Amino acid sequence: MKKIIAVAALCMSVFSYGQVHLGAKAGVNLNKLDGKNFNSNFELGYQLGGFATVNFTDFLGVQGELLFNQTNTKVADNYRDVFNSAFKKGKTLNYISVPVLLRLNSEGLITVVAGPQFSFLASGNQSVLENGKKLFKKTDFAFIAGAEINIKPLTVYARYIWGFSDVSNFGGKANSQQIQAGLSLRLF
């Protein structure tokens, strides 16, 4: 019981300090799956979601996000004969992503962000044939590094995301890579 009271007191002190901010964000993704079975070009997608930021000081903070990420990729041309007759080469993977980012210079004009991202496959644009053979794994783990320009209440951001998990269930290993850019609006 004492631990619950201590956690509640800590949460109340953070909220009363006025350093908790909520907002919405949207932007574009340039995605690719880095593996021998996939085209090595970046494909266009999008992301949409919300965030919560807790600033411990003007310099240091933490930001959690909940995003819907669309990743597009194409099966590599060297598998054309096999895959063209079975299903389309283009794939759309929809992920629910949860980044947890450390924020440096959190209340300054330029903020640097870095941290892990956990993603869960929501859908994989599957045809009838693909339902029998699942082509992609259900989770992805990645690391994010990027920067934000804060023009309160708007923020312009850019990030690079390195995937560490193998997301392919067929052929060789494939890791996701993503470039994100977008706008966020701090609601309060």
Rg, Å, rounded: 19 Å
**Could you give a short account of the major beta sheet?**
8 strands, antiparallel, barrel
Number of strands: 8
Number of domains: 1
Average pLDDT, all residues = 79
How do the strands and helices of this protein lay out in sequence?
Elements: H1 2-17, E1 20-35, E2 43-55, E3 60-74, H2 80-86, E4 90-104, E5 110-123, H3 128-132, E6 139-151, E7 154-163, E8 174-186
Antiparallel strand pairs: 1-2, 1-8, 2-3, 3-4, 4-5, 5-6, 6-7, 7-8
Keywords: Signal
Organism: Flavobacterium shii
Domain Outer membrane protein beta-barrel: 19-168
Structural description of this entry:
The protein is mainly beta and 188 residues long. It has helices at residues 2-17, 80-86, 128-132; strands at residues 20-35, 43-55, 60-74, 90-104, 110-123, 139-151, 154-163, 174-186. The longest helix is centred in the N-terminal third of the chain and has 16 residues, at 2-17.
Characteristic terms for this protein:
globular; 188 residues; mainly beta; 3 helices; Porin; 15% helix
Question: Could you give a quick summary of the protein structure above?
Answer:
The protein is mainly beta. The protein has three helices and eight strands, in the order H-E-E-E-H-E-E-H-E-E-E. Mean pLDDT is 79; it is low at 81-87 and 128-133.
